[in-house]
Amino acid sequence: MTQEVLNQVPFSVPPLPEQTAIASFLDRKTAEIDQLIANKEKLIALYEEEKTAIINRAVTRGLDPAVKTRPSGVDWLGDIPEHWEVKRLKYVAKINPTKDASINKNSDDLIVFLPMEKVQEDGSIDCGLKKPISELWSGFTFFRRNDVIIAKITPCFENGKGALLSTLDTEIGFGSTEFHVLRASKSILPKLMYFITKSERFMKVGEAFMTGSAGQKRVPTDFVAEFDIALPPLPEQTAIVTQIETECTRLDTIIDKFKKQIELFKEYRTTLISEVVTGKIDVRGEVEV
Question: Given a cut of 60, is residue 175 above it in pLDDT?
Fold first, then answer.
């Protein structure tokens, strides 16, 4: 609709005293709604912090609060259960593995392509975009199902963009060049490795190791490869992963409920404004005019 047409659209204007009443009413009501939204957002932030604390504690101390510990010898790990090992990621996973020689690079088979926007901070991925292998072979990051990917560029790394590719629609895929790829060995569960990359220690230390100019800083491959982790025995890894998933699912349910409430508050605010300014709700009696 052009400005000329808009200028010709008739609309009603209430008397000035009623305009004052409308503005006063909406100021008060929208402020109340905005405060409710802010309160819910604070609660969401607290529950997100609790999730982070659960992951941090589980991947560095395990599930037994009474477990005997020993110094890890690594500043950011501190004390760890005495029966756990300290390992660098490069010894338990392949870092940015090369493409498989058995794959036909000229194939027209469609596989998943994951640009950065298809990977979310909560670890979910959108597999809807598929392209031929021949189109993706050169110039993109290669991965397989059950690999872990981590965004390496700012601010995506700091925001926690990354995923365990257990739900990848195709056996192999390609993605943005701004991903690091970790492929778990038999000594570590892929899901545990994913949780380690989501831990506060990994995120904070990785941020400190970023290189490059402002706005284009990246986490170097060497940081990922040399990062020291506390590695429990495989049966304990399974128990840790199960506990983290249980607790985080519980908290995610609460967070989702609050997010839905926020959306309802926003919808109510929009509807309220519309109905008041169009006269569907009479507010003249709400304030002195």
Answer: yes
Q: Mutual orientation of helices 190-197 and 16-61 as an angle, nearest 10°?
A: 130
Q: What are the structure tokens assigned to 154, written together?
A: 């700012």
The CATH code for residues 14-81+232-289 is 1.10.287.1120
Annotation: CATH topology of 85-187+208-231: Adenine-n6-DNA-methyltransferase TaqI; Chain A, domain 2 (3.90.220)
Whole-model pTM: value is 0.85
Tell me if 221 sits within 8 A of 180, measured CB to CB: yes
Q: What is d(CA 61, CA 79) in angstroms, rounded to the nearest whole number?
A: 8
The first and second tokens of residue 237, run together, are: 């890894």
Token pair in block for residue 137: 């072979």
**Residue 289: its pLDDT value, please?**
36
Calpha distance 113→133 (Å, rounded): 10
Would you state the pLDDT for residue 75? 87
DSSP conformational letter for 212: S
